Amino acid sequence: MVALSLMIEGQQGLTWPHWKRLVAQAEECGFAGLFRSDHFTNARPPDQDALEAMISLGYLADHSQRIHFGPLVAPLSFHDPVALARQALAIDDLSGGRLILGLGAGWQEREHRMFGYDLGDVPTRMDRFTEGLEVITHLLQDEQPVTFEGRFYRLHEATLLPRPRRPAGPPILIGGNGTQRTLPLVARYAHIWNAVMLSPEDFQERSRQLDQTLAEAGRQPHEVRRTMMIGVFFGRDLAEVDRKLSWRQNSQHLSMLSLEEAVDRLPKLGRAIAGTAETIIEHIRVFEQAGVEELMLQWLDWQDAEGITAFAEQVFPHL
């Protein structure tokens, strides 16, 4: 059965009162997990409150019992991999082994320019990401001191203590759809692959490509869990769905479509799943048939506490 987790954009007004409510609600409503983005601010103005990601996950670890959680994803363009590995190890231990360490290369130019981080071109980002994955993997998994000499990072007989209670530490998740660099990194380092907004057919094709890449790396397909982040626009009735999809009037792909046609087209575009509970359930089952093991549902209107509860009550019993 496909697992359903809640995913929110932490740079879009998230404060401690909001986060505390979301942690309790995700746990109580039966979501498998709670994930959040890791950004200083939005790619475009306006700037809003943005609760720091790893500190917020430390709170979650100590104020929940069941759900798994993590950053989706922590960019190594502004996170030091040594500090991040150390934080992840501690948070995972605090939670009793429920952290998923989502990692990415970084992409948002505006936040890097604002806060003085060098994002670099795409090859530089991917080279730095590869080294960072190497550093984090060794620090979490190696029992012997780690020495590493790279272009971006250097270690000399480094050991993080205490060692993780969970063997090899928290599982590493790598997000992205790229076949040239991302999927080979998934095959080499990751326990979980997180695709980003693909149609069921595209997800299936990327998953087959990942199987081939894993085989080339000497790993089996079952060694990497298949997950995907996708938007969700849930309404308790069609009028609410229509309101939540009002932005479609400005979309070249959706503006000429009826509400019913737009709801049908969105998952085929890989943008979102939308509708009332009955339609949402149908879309989820299609993604499950395509091989998705967990959907991280990007809930943009996360301040709608009643809507999140209604979703859980109307959708979960049928899956």
Written account of the structure:
This protein is an alpha/beta fold and about 325 residues long. Helices cover about 40% and strands about 20% of the residues. It is built from 11 helices and 12 strands.
How many helical stretches?
11
CATH topology: TIM Barrel
The overall strand count is 12
- The overall number of domains is 1
CATH homologous superfamily name? Answer: Luciferase-like domain
CATH class: Alpha Beta
List the helices and strands in order: EHEHEEHEHHEEEHEHEHHEHEH
Summarize it.
The chain is an alpha/beta fold. It has eleven helices and twelve strands.
Task: Looking at this protein, list some descriptive labels.
alpha/beta; TIM Barrel; 319 residues; ten-stranded parallel sheet; single chain; 12 strands
Break the fold down into its secondary structure elements and pairings:
Blueprint: E1 3-8, H1 16-29, E2 33-36, H2 53-62, E3 68-71, E4 74-75, H3 81-95, E5 101-104, H4 109-115, H5 122-141, E6 146-149, E7 154-158, E8 172-175, H6 182-189, E9 192-196, H7 200-216, E10 225-234, H8 238-244, H9 259-269, E11 272-275, H10 277-289, E12 294-298, H11 305-315
Parallel strand pairs: 1-2, 1-12, 2-3, 4-5, 5-8, 8-9, 9-10, 10-11, 10-12
Antiparallel strand pairs: 6-7
